[in-house]
Specification:
The protein is 35% helix and 19% strand. By secondary structure, it is an alpha+beta fold. The protein folds into five domains: 3-106, Uridine Diphospho-n-acetylenolpyruvylglucosamine Reductase, domain 2, CATH 3.30.43.10; 113-231, Uridine Diphospho-n-acetylenolpyruvylglucosamine Reductase, domain 3 (2-Layer Sandwich), CATH 3.30.465; 235-347, Alpha-Beta Plaits; 357-444, Alpha-Beta Plaits (2-Layer Sandwich); 452-495, no CATH class. The strands form five sheets. It has a five-stranded antiparallel sheet with strand order 5-6-10-8-9. Strands 1-2-4-3 form a four-stranded mixed sheet. It is globular and about 70 Å long. It starts with a helix and ends with a helix. It binds flavin-adenine dinucleotide. Flavin-adenine dinucleotide binds next to strand 3, helix 6, strand 10 and helix 13.
Length: 496
Amino acid sequence: MTEASLSHPSGEPAKLDSAAIEQFETLIGKQHCLTAPADVDPYCHEWRDKFFGKTGLVLKPGSVDEVSAIMKLAHDQNFAIVPQGGNTGLVGAQTPDSSGDQIILSMERLDKIRSIDPGSNVAIVEAGVVLERLQSAAEEVNRLFPLALGAQGSCQIGGNLSTNAGGTSVLAYGNMRDMVLGVEVVLPDGRVMNCLRTLRKDNTGYDLKHLFIGAEGTLGIITAASLKLYPRPCDQQVAIFAAESPEKAFALFSLARAHSGSMLTGFELMPRMGVEFAIRHASGVRDMMESPYPWYCLVELSIGSPAVDGRALIEAIFEEAFEAGHVVDAVLAESRQQAADFWHLRHGMSEVQKHEGGSIKHDISVPVSAIPAFLARAIPACEAAIPGCRPVPFGHMGDGNLHFNISQPVGADREAFLARWEEINSMVHAIVIDMGGSISAEHGIGTLKRDHLPEVKDPVEMDIMRQIKRLFDPKGLMNPDKLLKSDRLSDQDIKK
Ligand code: FAD
């Protein structure tokens, strides 16, 4: 098949007028179709107000059949659909364009936990279930659903799957892709593909579920998933260690890993600047040590057996790290509340930056051992480009993934600072690529990084991705222009 024969057969997606809206209202009931500007507005921008769009219609289906009927109608009449979960994504992938014609498909009413089986360690949940609710449901049957991230009170399982979310437990449990046994998907033409298997072993050909994980809603609507549950640890030890440099923090990581193996379930890096922001702006956060230190590592151990003394283990890690000069101080959580407070500090690290003016963000990964070398190159490069800027690199050091964020200089003009976003991104990403890293470790591509994708991916890989998109969505109606440019634009994209 040629490139041309795969492109959108009828040009632009259809315009959304009142006659079209009525057809969707007939499918799912007027009360589940939002059209008033005040009602649709919260779905059209995200919490940081970085991405804005417009829509004339937000649909809130309550069943898989309703999703299927919506998709069939949209497919037949060329309406573009933007799937949306908790609207916490950070790359603009859940936001419609400015035409007002793209329809938002909100998954919030598909929120049933269909079954939870502690014997097989499997939960079958609908896409609109909020992550925190699944964590609690697993706890009620003495199991763990380990995905954990700052937005867990709002983000949904469908969004977690579609972004292949990472978070703070990847070190031990992997990212969302590693926790999935099966998915149920409504395809762009309305067909329901049921791969909702719960098997641990199933070698029966291509494993299609993985195409939808991390696809950012560009191939279909995930309506449900079967997810792995894990044993609950009988003890957790959480501590914050102070280190004088990223090299020392990495030495601590290596030591902690060698001592505790798979019991090391979290290793997060925070710079002093981020902790100061948190002390200034987050509720209930205060300095946890008597003196300030340049870097802090949040370390979590999860103990699976009562035969292991978790407290003794974390104390031994501290003593050895202190004697070796890797760390200069530490606070071990004395209670579950104090452990939660330490995580509150870490999870609030994105939010507090908002109060310090503009922030230019990166979500990068490099090989784990290269984190100190990356910081040694990227921090001075940013400081030289924007004197007085305040780097706040924090995050999942144990996975080689940092949110390398740069806050504006104190008193600088916010807009002028943010106008340098692309320039600073290009400079930092060049360092990342040079070190064999990724420009999007866990947040995805969306519209934010879409145009950079062809620069960092193998051309053959890009070509296969476009072919997969065309196979599932030949009309280019599924979350158009997210992740990949639409078919009707892709010839230019290919020539770039
Ligand atoms: P949305 O933002 O609504 O959508 C995200 C993408 O998924 C869009 O492309 C959308 O079209 C698609 N989508 C949503 N639901 C479906 C569906 N049912 N079927 C098909 N496509 C769908 N992310 C991390 O990985 N790690 C972190 O540590 C992390 N920390 C965060 C901290 C904060 C404070 C915030 C605000 C965000 C953080 N994120 C993090 C980003 C975000 O929370 C995740 O990407 C999350 O998985 C998005 O879920 P959501 O339900 O909000 O999806």
